[in-house]
Specification:
Largest sheet of chain A: 9 strands, mixed
Largest interface: A-B, 85 and 82 residues
CATH superfamily of the largest domain in chain B: HUPs
CATH class of the largest domain in chain A: Alpha Beta
Number of strands of chain A: 15
Largest sheet of chain B: 7 strands, parallel
Order of helices and strands of chain A: EEEEEHEHHEHEHEEEEHEEEH
Number of strands of chain B: 18
Number of helices of chain B: 9
Number of domains of chain A: 2
Shape of chain B: elongated
CATH topology of the largest domain in chain B: Rossmann fold
CATH topology of the largest domain in chain A: Rossmann fold
CATH class of the largest domain in chain B: Alpha Beta
Strand content of chain A: 25-35%
CATH architecture of the largest domain in chain B: 3-Layer(aba) Sandwich
Shape of chain A: globular
Order of helices and strands of chain B: EEEHEHEHEHEEEEEEEEHEHEHEHEH
Structural class of chain B: alpha/beta
CATH superfamily of the largest domain in chain A: HUPs
Number of helices of chain A: 7
Oligomer: heterodimer
Distance between the termini of chain B: 69 Å
Chain lengths: 265, 332
């Protein structure tokens, strides 16, 4: 089983909201003083891939697209147990939209050779769009199953539990297929010391656009169908009415009385 | 310019009704169509659904395109996408509005890319740019830490809207409109994936998305036992219990209770957040609540920025006293 997992380097979504800043001139966000991480939803996809590999054997190739990707960040999936890493790391990829990035990823997947399954996170924690997986499936003409919480492979058929708001759907699909993975799949494993050592020895393969059959002008900002007009932080007025009292119990009583008086409860 | 014109809303249906988010889509769609001076169409796909046309017209549509075939009774991704592709190629709307629902999440991007255009997901505001007449699409990004305004340069401009972010019109049964039936002409060769079964996981009590009061706990609750105390307050207020992601990941409460960007997006009258710090990704799921009440030890916790009432203190001490006092007040 050849498994491809697409992951993204993002600003750390778990950092305190106070460190989140927008550079208005560049229309770009950053986490002040906090290093970037592998997108948490991508880690769920890596975990899903590792479980499929454990159940039936295979190889996991991780692909990441970006500009100046930090090796210590993008190597995390290797430390978790993935086998190979391909980086689409070049200035030409900068500024792409969902379509541009998915197109480059799809061309890289084709070049990487035979594959049975392509895994992506359900969405990335920065764009919160959830379009990369569906886009790759449309570009490569493959079946697409989104929001997986359980993946089983049996007789070259996929059987997937797909999360929905009242439970889950059981979906069957032939391989190869694109699957996006939801957090309900369960906590991604931590890299082991052995895994970290092994990851150190693996050199990532780096592909520029021309390596995957795309002209430099055929990716990144040049191919945007969607343009970012503005990025801003919503403002909340701080008007919280705090309960008074000398002890937590007194404050609790004060809150109950207040809510009753305000006819909230 | 392209020959695309008008606004179309894909109206998702359940049993014999359109979903509330479809009515919300028609509400904003009507506004956009009026601004552009163009028509508002609706598209419905399903089995035995033709009767819904009048309901859709009363919610604001000028024209309803109906694909009614018993084989479309249940949602199957590949079939629905190919049916929608066909309808859209015939109708050629400039803007397509869908709901950010379980299925809208996958339908919208796949449809958009198949049509050679792009989608913007989970919009909370839509408006027409006065100059370019293109759709200004505002959506939360970075887990709700920021919002982005996007413009799609290709047609049709496909968007999904967040639940309860737009207003539905008050239905006007005297509104007149036209309905057009489009044959499904299903082609079995498009079907790759198959939904074999839909499993409903029953939750005891009131469903969190229907509850007027939600009592939710965060990482600080610390155990499944802790959630029992939240349950006691929820029962007293005839509400439901929710959670941020860590308690679900730790198995203290079922995943179904998760409120947030990757869980449920709810808008109850009252949201009581207990030991929830208020990460942006969690706030995305509850910021539409009418009144947020927060109990947290950390006075700097993000939750207090959006809370109307708050207690700074250890929930283990605050909650029992609060529940007790409330019981007394409600009894008198």
């Amino acid at each position: 089983m050849n498994i491809i997992v697409c992951v993204k380097q993002v600003i750390d979504p778990e950092a305190p909201p106070a460190s989140f800043k927008i550079d208005a001139a560049k229309n770009r966000a950053e986490m002040h003083g906090v290093p970037p991480v592998i997108d948490p939803y991508g880690e769920y996809a890596v975990e899903a891939g590792l479980r499929v590999k454990e159940a039936g054997g295979g190889k996991i190739t991780v692909i990441s697209l970006g500009v100046n990707l930090l090796r210590e960040v993008v190597k995390k999936p290797l430390a978790m147990g993935a086998d190979e890493l391909i980086l689409l790391d070049d200035e030409a990829y900068a500024g792409g939209d969902s379509w541009s990035n998915a197109y480059s990823l799809a061309m890289a997947i084709k070049k990487a050779g035979a594959f049975d399954m392509i895994l992506c996170g359900r969405e990335a924690s920065d764009t919160n769009a959830g379009q990369t997986g569906p886009a790759i499936s449309e570009i490569l003409g493959l079946p697409c199953i989104t929001l997986a919480r359980k993946i089983e492979v049996k007789d070259s058929q996929l059987r997937i539990e797909r999360v929905n708001s009242s439970g889950y759907d059981v979906i069957e699909s032939p391989l190869p297929a694109v699957v996006t993975v939801s957090n309900e799949i369960g906590q991604p494993r931590y890299p082991t010391v052995k895994g970290i050592m092994a990851a150190k020895k693996i050199e990532p393969v780096i592909w520029k656009p021309t390596d995957i059959g795309i002209e430099a002008a055929g990716t990144g900002a040049n191919t945007q169908r969607t343009k970012l007009r503005k990025l801003f932080q919503p403002v909340y007025e701080g008007k919280c009415d705090f309960a008074a009292g000398d002890s937590p119990e007194e404050m609790a009583v004060d809150l109950a009385v207040k809510l009753r008086q305000a006819k909230v409860l | 310019m392209s020959d695309y014109e008008g606004v179309a809303v894909y109206c998702e249906t359940k049993e014999d009704k359109i979903l509330p988010i479809a009515a919300e889509g028609l509400g904003i769609g009507r506004k956009l169509a009026d601004t552009l001076g163009q028509k508002l169409s609706a598209v419905i796909v399903g089995g035995n659904i033709s009767g819904l046309a009048q309901q859709i017209i009363s919610c604001g549509a000028d024209k309803v395109y109906i694909v009614d075939d018993l084989q479309l009774k249940d949602y199957q991704a590949d079939v629905y996408i190919s049916v929608l592709e066909k309808v859209i190629k015939q109708v050629k709307p400039q803007i397509i509005i869908m709901g950010q629902t379980d299925y809208g999440r996958e339908l919208a991007p796949r449809l958009a890319f198949r049509l050679g255009t792009a989608a913007t997901m989970d919009c909370v505001d839509l408006a027409i740019d006065a100059e370019s007449k293109r759709l200004l699409q505002t959506k939360p990004v970075y887990g709700g830490n920021a919002q982005a305004v996007f413009i799609t340069e290709t047609d049709p401009q496909v968007v999904t809207i967040r639940t309860k972010a737009m207003e539905a019109l008050t239905p006007d049964t005297s509104r007149k409109g036209e309905s057009v039936t489009i044959p499904a002409d299903l082609d079995a060769s498009v079907i790759k994936t198959k939904t074999l079964e839909r499993v409903v996981e029953e939750v005891a009590g009131i469903k969190i998305e229907d509850a007027q009061v939600v009592v939710a706990g965060g990482r600080g609750i610390g155990s499944a036992d802790g959630f029992k105390q939240l349950d006691e307050l929820a029962k007293l207020l005839k509400g439901a219990v929710g959670a941020s992601r860590p308690p679900c990941d730790n198995g203290w409460i079922p995943d179904m209770a998760q409120v947030g960007l990757t869980g449920k997006i709810i808008a109850p009258e009252i949201y009581i957040a207990v030991a929830i710090s208020g990460s942006s990704q969690h706030m995305s799921g509850c910021s539409g609540s009418k009144t947020i009440i927060a109990i947290n030890r950390d006075k700097e916790a993000n939750i207090f920025r959006q809370a109307r009432f708050g207690v700074i203190g250890d929930w283990k001490k605050v909650l029992p006293a609060f529940t007790q006092k409330l019981k007394e007040l409600m009894a008198s």
